[in-house]
Amino acid sequence: TQERFLGGLYGSFYNVIADTYFTCSDYMNERIKNSKYFQVKNLVSVGQYRANYLSLYENKNIPKEILLQRKMGKKIVVGLGISLNSLDWFGSNVDIARNWKSQKNFIDDMIKLSQDIENIFLILRFRNFKWKSLPYFEDSLKKIREIKNIHIADNYSEYFNSYKYCANADLIVATFTSLADECLAYGKPLIFYDYTRNLKKIV
Length: 203
What we know:
- It is a single chain.
- By secondary structure, the chain is α/β, with parallel strands linked by helices.
- 33% of the residues lie in helices and 19% in strands.
- It has helices at 26-33, 52-57, 64-71, 89-92, 100-116, 138-146, 161-167, 178-186; strands at 16-23, 38-45, 75-80, 120-125, 150-152, 171-174, 190-192.
- The chain has a 5-stranded parallel β-sheet, sandwiched between helices. The chain has a two-stranded parallel sheet with strand order 1-2.
- The longest helix has 17 residues, at 100-116.
- It is globular and about 55 Å long.
């Protein structure tokens, strides 16, 4: 089953060999048929199937911080950040999109957004928060603790928490994640946060 829409657009980086492959769209079926990197007999488009999770939580099981801020008249913005592939600075730099600097840029831009627009409450959500103790991020995390309308959702003890936040958001600002694809498929207002579109080539 295809979980990432973007995966079908890759070349040799993303290969699938299968008898039957459930895809996210008819468009993707055509892309895969014409790709030499996919060896699939039967293609069945089923959509972004995990988008259904969002319907389970929209206006239900709403996180308490969202309920509180809504009562105060705030619009809810969820920022979906990256997960660091490595907690080692040098190790993370092999990935242009998932390294320490790109993580910090995202956090600092979200801090600026929370300060530029006063009537929002911005919730940051990451795949994990293992990097919180790294000194590299301390100044950014200190700012977040001092600003009233930005918060890091760091409860990872319950399943589908990220879906709960996104389902009840007025806007989502996201790095490239499968959850962002699912939010788009569900119809949530979403802006992709992506500096890589400015690249001309990767060496």
